[in-house]
Amino acid sequence: MSPDQSLADLSDTFFTVSVALYSVALVAFCAQLAFGRRPVRERELVGAGPAGSATDSHPDVEPPAANRWGAIGIGLTILGALTHAAVMITRGMAVDRLPWGNMYEFGTAVVLVAVVAYAVLAVRAPALRHMGAFVLGPVVLAMVGIGLFLYAPAAPLVAALRSYWLAIHVTSAILGFGIFFVSGIASLLYLLRVRHDARAVEGETSILSRLPSAAGLDRVAHRTAIFGFPIWTFAVIAGAIWAESAWGRFWGWDPKETWSFVAWVVYAAYLHARTTAGWRGRPAAWVNVVGLAVMVFNLLFVNLVSTGLHSYGGV
Amino acid sequence: MTVLDRPAVSAPGPSAPRRGAGLLLQWWRRLTAMRTAIILLFLLALAAVPGSLLPQRSLSQNNVTQYFADNPTLAPILDRLYLFDVFSSPWFAAVYLLLFVSLIGCVLPRALEHARALRAAPPRAPRHLLRLPDSGELRSTLPPAEALDVVEEELRVRRFRVVRRSADTAGASGGEVSAEKGYLKETGNLLFHLSLVALLLGLAGGKLWGYEGSILVTEGQGFCNSFQQYDTYSAGPLVDSGDLSPVCVDLEDFRAEYEEDLTASSFTADIRYGGPGEEGRATTIGVNDPLRIDGDRIYVTGHGFSPTFAVTLPDGREYTDLSVPFLPSDQTTLASQGALKLPDVGTGSDDQLALEGFFAPTGVVQGGILTSIDPRPLDPQVAIVLYEGYLGLDSGIPQSVYSLDATQIDRGSLERVGAANLEVGESVELPDGTSVAFTGFREFAALQFSHDPGQLWVLGSAVSLLVGLLGMLLVRRERVFARVGAPSGDGGTVLTVASLMRGSGESAPRFAALSDELGTVLAARADSARSRTSASEVPPRES
Ligand code: HEM
């Protein structure tokens, strides 16, 4: 069963279209930041006070032009996510299997999950549109990098990957990764925002002052991490179950397994840090950022450089 | 630090054992603090890192040997630090054991407390309810007791556990209500953490009582489960080698199938298994599809080819069907390498015969070099180098079965006597008149026999871990308090209501919704009470 080339080509076209849409969305989000007025200074302290009000206060002080750009940005993001989903669907139809059998497909799917997770958040809480530029920026970078360096033509799977566990294990890994992606960016922005707030001179404007409030960013980071953690836990367990039938042992400290474990432990540390005095706020946010770094390292370094059983993912 | 913190000497100090116990307690507290847990989690993550950056013996002994060859000065130092056996090293064990001691010390007291809380009534309302971040006042025209009835009822409908007490606070005129729900959050937390302990125990059990053996089996041959038969095996310290499950396996047929682009699409092996001497049962195993027989598993982990040769000596003696597995050096084309050693062909120990070579399932010769272009055996060819002399097999130093001992060649005890590229049926004649023919090939499968008694236990722990995690992260723990305040002048009731919530950032809107709903119900009840009273009391009032 050889891949259907015309569908595969269509998939590649959708990929280009998605990158283009995301790029335009990025421009729109930048315009939103540029036209936005500096929001009224938050009176709340970081991490304290009733949650929910901090982020929702923004739209009121926003000039209509900025609002419009924000709406355009989110609209384009959703459109991009649709064509992005079409990339996966046509690829899957071309090869007649789930479209996550190699790094190109895996990476593309992770970015899609991140975009969808962000879009859901930003539709529900319009204040989060202010971080759009900071999400779409990495998204465009990641897509271009994936397209340039990881691209793999549509091809059938090697024998070891032909199992329904591919659907279970890899799907949950993609979901977890995509959600952690948004979480890590929120924590990164939180750190920038906190630093900015500490240094800000009254009346000075900067792009960072238009970000959602520190408390809001911290909350987004935590909530997404809480959502992602059980999914990632499940992905690791499912991977172990698959490894038991594919490789003859459920855990063998293969590099990919090792780094997935490291990431899991780091996220557990993050969740602990969030509830431990002395670790709340910036230290916890750093832990979350380290978690994302580990996830990215796990994808790039382990697949491209080290050799392990997971290496047949293909580049 | 602990020592410096000691109180001044002037006070009569505790006796030495008491002080020792105090110090111990202090360290215990420190170990079981959440802060320590975070640090230990970090250490655990950090400790795992070298295990993925340096070659590990548990994964590939060859890579470690290669590393030693490439870094002759550094490698022994790293080795002394267990950096090639990270996951079985004492320092890795130290980190996770400390973490688990900390975990148990942290979780057990919590479990006891939770067990008590499950049976106890929700705690008394804090004295100053309005100081809680989510709090407010509700006014009602109902008398205090009835208003509190309404609150209690509404909370019960929302599946709170509710207790009503008479208030002892100064200025309070009536009772108070404490309500709590979401006990499952704490149950989930405990289940999660205790499952981690169970998981570790399962892993340890598997390591102690588990074993694993690998063997290359050519079609038509078989093996029985015993350590002597395996090419390589590893066993836990508590495995009794006389006590392995009595299972024998015969490989009847092996099939590899490929896509058009030569991606392997499936490997399957028809095997027959059963006790020694039994007829055995037939089954088929393959990639992702091992054979499981109570506690034991049998896998196909790879495959390859065993070329067969025939040797005719100058005196006419003939050896046919000499076959030996060649190991694939390239998984996509199955180009393979190996060696055939014939210590008994000659008359003495210095005219032994051997060949080392390269097998191509589909061979192409370019410029005298044989390469393979297809993993399927469409045009099998070998490139062999023949040696005569002393193989060194009885020298006491173990040799690889897949290559000749290079020191014997360097030393000149093994002499190169010929080389050839052969297709099936072709032969090469050596200077002394010996003829070596390439007669064909057989397929072999790499089989693995695994026994891990901890495996199901680990799976169970992982599942309960996940269940606990979901409970811990999804359930909200909420406490709601209501108290009747000082009577207001107009005969109505002022209720102070407050809530405490763990595990969600959305406490403010949720509290607002709750107090809105309570207010609505109170108002509705007050209305119906008024209409009831007006029905019976209107005449006297109006008069
Ligand atoms: C193998 C190591 C451990 C892992 C993977 C782990 C994981 C977790 C996770 C994922 C949470 C959820 C946090 C949340 O509700 O947001 C949690 C909560 C908690 N863990 Fe651990 N933990 C470990 C060890 C420990 C240790 C050693 C302690 C005690 C010193 C501890 C005490 C707690 C406590 C008290 C909570 C509840 C926090 C809260 O609800 O506010 N854990 N743990």
Low-confidence stretches of chain A: 39-60
Number of strands of chain A: 0
Strand content of chain B: 25-35%
Ligand inventory reads: protoporphyrin IX containing FE
How many angstroms separate the termini of chain B?
Answer: 83 Å
Structurally, how many domains make up the residues of chain A?
1
Order of helices and strands of chain A: HHHHHHHHHH
Query: How much strand of chain A?
Result: under 5%
Helix content of chain B: 25-40%
Number of separate strands of chain B: 23
Uncertain spans of chain B: 1-11, 537-543
The SS-based structural class of chain B is alpha+beta
The largest pleated sheet of chain B is described as: 7 strands, antiparallel
Keywords (chain A): Cytochrome c-type biogenesis, Membrane, Transmembrane, Transmembrane helix
Protein name (chain A): C-type cytochrome biogenesis protein CcsB
Membrane topology (chain A): Multi-pass membrane protein
InterPro entries (chain A): Cyt_c_assembly, Cyt_c_biogenesis_CcsA, Cyt_c_biogenesis_CcsA/CcmC
Show the helix and strand layout.
The complex is a heterodimer of chains A (315) and B (543).
Chain A: H1 5-35, H2 53-56, H3 58-61, H4 64-95, H5 103-124, H6 132-150, H7 164-199, H8 214-246, H9 255-274, H10 282-304
Chain B: H1 16-31, H2 34-48, H3 50-53, H4 61-70, H5 74-80, H6 90-119, E1 134-140, H7 144-157, E2 161-166, E3 175-181, H8 183-209, E4 211-218, E5 222-224, E6 232-235, E7 248-258, E8 264-274, E9 281-286, E10 291-293, E11 296-312, E12 318-323, E13 327-328, E14 336-342, E15 352-360, E16 363-366, E17 369-372, E18 381-389, H9 406-411, E19 414-423, E20 427-429, E21 435-451, H10 455-474, E22 477-484, E23 493-502, H11 507-542
The structure holds protoporphyrin IX containing FE.
